[in-house]
Amino acid sequence: xxSRTGFARTRAKEHPRITVWKWQGRNARGKRLQGEMxxxxxxxxxxxxxxxxxxxxxxxxxRSLPVFGNRIRSRxxxxxxxxxxxxxxxxxxxxxxxxxxxxxxxxxxxxxxIETLYQDxxxxxxxxxxxxxxxxxxxxxxxxxxxxxxxxxxxxxxxERIALYKExxxxxxxxxxxxxxxxxxxxGVGIGITVLLLVEVVPQFETMFSGxxxxxxxPTQLTIRLSETVQAWWFQSLVVxxxxxxxxxxxxxxxxxxxxxxSRLSLRxxxxxxxxxxxxxxxxxxxxxTSFAAGVPLLEALETASGACGNQVFARAVNDxxxxxxxxxxxxxxxxxxxxxxxxxxxxxxIGEEAGSLDDMLDRVAEFHETEVENRVDTxxxxxxxxxxxxxxxxxxxxxxxxxxxxxxxxSAI
Length: 414
Prior knowledge:
Elements: H1 4-10, E1 19-26, E2 32-39, H2 42-51, E3 55-64, H3 74-89, H4 94-104, H5 108-122, H6 127-132, H7 140-152, H8 155-209, H9 218-254, H10 256-267, H11 272-293, H12 298-306, H13 312-326, H14 331-337, H15 343-355, H16 358-413
Antiparallel strand pairs: 1-2, 1-3
Helix pairs in contact: 3-4, 3-8, 4-5, 7-8, 8-9, 8-11, 8-16, 11-12, 11-16, 12-13, 13-14, 14-15, 15-16
């Protein structure tokens, strides 16, 4: 199994900028072939094609992938694990499975990763060792499970377990994002419509009201002043907001203390805090269950699970749990000392430790909290819909009403 020290050491390894190459050549029967390949240089393309029995006649650089094109998303790795598990289970050799998956993907960066894995494994490296060279794309749990699968001769089952684990985390993450982004996006649309009315529509009414020769109602005057302010400062305000967002993200990346404080604050938010708490517990127990079931030692599994919580408060708590377990404390007692886990969760973990079925009990705890997250998100969405309608009505409706008040007064005077 790949050691944690070796995995951490490879984290600093830099990956070359990859390029899309267009090639033309002939195979062993003289048939003309052409295609594209993602690689870091020409020698890599020629070497890979030579392994397929293709003689390169023409090779040209088509384009370099931009920085954002190099990003491999979590769901890409999930799909890769699922496809590899299916092919290996069907009896396809590992190297042939790499080639088939690489040819089926439309993501250039993922294809380059798979081709790099192919070259490393064909050069005599183990699959887990090749994965450990890419810590920016593959987490430690993936490496540990693949190493366990290689040792036990059950690589297909371990890859299937990885895919299932990542799919469940993706579903959980999507539910949490829905709870957080849904109200923000709707309110943002309402604010955007309001700004558009203030910039484009209100000035037209202001021109019309200037010929009335009468004092405008107070709501209308306030709306006109707000419109003038927005027209004069909208660009500066947008730049300030974007700059503040970028600055906050920069500070959070470099300030663990501030990151921890924001994590604590997020857990105290009404409704949302409960969803984030249940989500963190579900991610922790799911990761710990998957790692422990694969034969990963408990202390290493806890270290992996600390990075999967998605919340700094729970990440620190898991580090404390690991320290207590390392000192001989039982897992459920160490979890109780953090005061972050429910009595039901602690009781199930205690039963699992006594019965020797800790992975199964942790899996049940994860399923329970995932269901809780789903129910709370659905409830939050149902409760927010009427609230959002009221807010949008006050924003847009109040603005429109304030602009029509002078027209109503003029009509009543006539």
